[in-house]
Specification:
binds adenosine-5'-triphosphate, 10 strands, 232 residues, binds magnesium ion, 4-stranded antiparallel β-sheet
């Protein structure tokens, strides 16, 4: 039995930069099932972030079809897309993207701002998520009072607070040392075991090895899709 959450067919993205056209994605097709853990790898400029931005509904393709949970994304209105980004998708970035003046509970509450959840309940959920990523002792801290790994845990808690169908992470360990990277990948592994669908971009094969499947990109195309056999 399959439960396809992402289905892209012949996806294309052409950027126009002045006179120059850049074909960042050329004819990319694949499916991702619910509760898969996918890594996207490939050299710089191969189209990984472009693909993630489209899959995360932050950007639209210039050709092809993207079905998210069975719905054609190109047919969604701007407000439907905003709703999808808020409720169905969680993002984690290399540089954490936390607000420096807010304590970490308030940072994690941010995605709930657009829902009708009252602030007390939002704070309760934020504290619960921060507990889940091991930061229950740091609730009153602001981001620059935390280590890099702890900041990334806050970003992951924030991505999870809406219970999104998919978590997208673009180079989530790119700013972390190798020991902290292992801790963050262990956390993703735990979330995956609990049922989370995860799509992660990385340059490093050690990081990609945590996934079940690795999509290798080159020059805007899929070079190969590999199943990871060795479990970590
Ligand atoms: N907004 C843009 N306008 C024009 N060209 C762009 C734009 N964004 C990306 N590109 C080009 O599209 C191609 C793919 O870029 P993308 O950012 O997806 O690569 P990447 O695989 O994520 O690289 P990296 O590993 O360096 O993050 C590159 O050639 C890049 O220069
Ligand atoms: Mg990139």
């Amino acid at each position: 039995m399959t439960d396809t959450i992402i289905d892209i067919q012949n996806l294309q993205k052409i950027y126009h930069a002045g006179e120059v056209e850049v074909a960042a994605l050329k004819d990319v097709s694949f499916k991702i099932e619910r509760n898969e853990f996918i890594a996207i790898m490939g050299p710089s400029g191969s189209g990984k972030s472009t693909l993630m931005n489209i899959l995360g509904c932050l950007d639209q393709p210039t050709g092809g079809i993207y079905r998210l949970a069975g719905r054609d994304v190109s047919q969604m209105s701007d407000s439907e897309l905003a709703g999808v980004r808020n409720r169905d998708i969680g993002f984690v970035f290399q540089s954490f993207h936390l607000l420096p003046r807010l304590n970490i509970v308030r940072n994690v509450m941010l995605p709930l701002k657009y829902s009708d959840i009252d602030p007390e309940e939002a704070a309760r959920r934020a504290r619960e998520m921060l507990g889940r990523v091991g930061l229950e002792q740091r609730l009153n801290h602001v981001p620059n009072e935390l280590s890099g790994g702890q900041r990334q845990r806050v970003a992951i808690a924030r991505a999870l607070v809406n219970q999104p169908a998919i978590i997208f992470a673009d180079e989530p360990t790119g700013n972390l040392d190798s020991k902290t990277s292992v801790e963050i990948m262990d956390l993703f592994t735990e979330l995956h075991r609990a049922g989370q669908t995860i799509i992660l971009v990385t340059h490093e094969s050690e990081i990609a090895d945590y996934a079940q499947k690795v999509i290798h990109m080159r020059d805007g195309e899929i070079e190969e899709i590999k199943h990871v056999t060795a479990s970590v």
